[in-house]
Amino acid sequence: MNLNIAVLAGDGIGPEVVEQAQKVSDAIAKKYGHTINWTPAITGAAAIDAVGEPYPDATHEICMNSDAVLFGAIGLPRFDNDPSNPVRPEQGLLAMRKKLGLYANIRPTLVFPSLLHKSPLRPELIENADFVCIRELTGGIYFGDKGRNEARDKAWDVCEYTKPEVERIIRLAYTYAMARKKKLTIVDKANVLETSRLWREVGQSLEKEYPEVKTEYLLVDAAAMRIIQWPEGFDVMVTENMFGDILTDEASVISGSMGLMPSASIGLHTSVFEPIHGSYPQATGLNIANPIGTVLSAAMMFEYAFKLMDEAQEIKDVVNKSLAEGIVTEDIAGKDKAYGTKEVGDWLAAQIV
Ligand code: IPM
Ligand code: MN
């Protein structure tokens, strides 16, 4: 099979971790007789510096013409530290999500048996945790009207959702729940927010179409608590854009490190596969960043974009092996020996023969 993949490495540690995922993907392609054509494209701060915008049209063209996009990370402190800057790298990520119509971000919470003892949570609390968060990705406060008054002493970000937007993401969540343990948790803040009341209303009308699925509604503050108190109580969780952003960072603690967590963003056009972590600028070029989140995002890419299940499984298997054998970066090594980003990537690729 010919796999045409756009590579948007982005900023900070993005290029380093993406390189490892490409290495592992190439090894898999070689073993299973596929040909990967990688097409690099610029985004984020790198694109602002080169052409003045974080998601140039040329990059969008490349994404639209590819079968999948492998994405690294976006963002640099020199932009964070200057709030008056009109162009920001993150706008590139948001523009990409919007223009590719990526309305759903699938974030599985993975528990690695060999890392149970590395989690700040007690092993018996998390060993049976296995849930997936479906985060709405192209609506809500991220994309609503935002601005300042003339005196610039008042600011606003509007949270908006339409019924069709809510319906398509909750329906998608139901299809995931049907394929899993048939439990869906709809997370909102319906005791305060009108948008949340719309979410709940839509949930209640769709519930009837999926009688086999046990649907529950949970307020986001309670959900935040329950994720660390009783994570095995969740199967599929669906929520709006910003709640999903926050809750999935929290949930990554279950697995032991945010550097391990992959995601798939799917929707109307080409799907994007990206780790949930950020650009970790302090680590840029130091060969210490954990490449596993991106490697597992590549596994999701084989599964979701190409339906190559064996290939995806083999990537997950070698990742588990590396964790079990302690071939890990410093974020999970603790007092044990830490390997470099590149060494972990090389080790993983070398296992695939
Ligand atoms: C994520 C990131 C992004 C988000 C940032 C970089 C804009 O935190 O993918 O979770 O908030 O969506
Ligand atoms: Mn985030």
From TrEMBL:
UniProt GO cellular component terms: cytosol
Catalysed reaction, written as an equation: (2R,3S)-3-isopropylmalate + NAD(+) = 4-methyl-2-oxopentanoate + CO2 + NADH
Signal peptide limits: none
UniProt keyword annotations, A-Z: Amino-acid biosynthesis, Branched-chain amino acid biosynthesis, Leucine biosynthesis, Magnesium, Manganese, Metal-binding, NAD, Oxidoreductase
EC number: 1.1.1.85
GO biological process, any: L-leucine biosynthetic process
The UniProt record lists the keyword ATP-binding: no
SUPFAM superfamilies with a match to the protein in the record: Isocitrate/Isopropylmalate dehydrogenase-like
Entry's cofactor comment: Binds 1 Mg(2+) or Mn(2+) ion per subunit.
Cofactors demanded by this protein: Mn(2+); Mg(2+)
The keyword Amino-acid biosynthesis appears for this protein: yes
Residue span, Isopropylmalate dehydrogenase-like domain: 4-348
Subunit structure: Homodimer.
Function according to Swiss-Prot or TrEMBL: Catalyzes the oxidation of 3-carboxy-2-hydroxy-4-methylpentanoate (3-isopropylmalate) to 3-carboxy-4-methyl-2-oxopentanoate. The product decarboxylates to 4-methyl-2 oxopentanoate.
NCBIfam families according to UniProt: leuB
Name by which UniProt lists this protein: 3-isopropylmalate dehydrogenase
The organism of origin for this protein: Arcticibacterium luteifluviistationis
